[in-house]
Amino acid sequence: PLNNPWHWTAFAGILRQSFMFYESGHQVEKVISHPNYDSKTKNNDIALMKLQTPLTFNDFVKPVCLPNPGLLLEPEQHCWISGWGATEEKGKTSDVLNAAMVRLIETQRCNSRYVYDNLITPAMICAGFLQGTVDSCQGDSGGPLVTSKDNVWWLIGDTSWGSGCAKAYRPGVYGNVTVFTDWIYRQMR
What we know:
By secondary structure, the chain is mostly beta strands. 8% of the residues lie in helices and 29% in strands.
């Protein structure tokens, strides 16, 4: 059912979920899930939506760049997450779009036995803070993990999974978009 485009309407440029009642949104023409997605491990957790009509860019709706597969990211690179997810574990989703700064966490560190004990694959990246405090949460899945390099915004991750919300030694896990760039371009043809 989640692959059925009739289940989806895309909204862009709104800052409150309640504004969806006043907008028509964009109908989704096609949903493309990654063919190697593994629902158990969340490996290859990415999907694309083709809209029936293109978005119009303005002050509130802007594109983000897809990363080159070799985009060099610094350890602890500052990134931003956003979404309407819960603001606390087991909380309700937010009406207001929230955003927060997080830092990339090196895969080796995220795969340590104190964090995710080798559950992180090359198709995943970790971001947040090992002490907890800031994280994506339920309802944020699929949302962006972006970073700015040389005044260009890059989509480097999509919110995938985690253990709880903002817990110590349980940072957020994101699909590693740099691994999927070639696949994304193939789907756009």
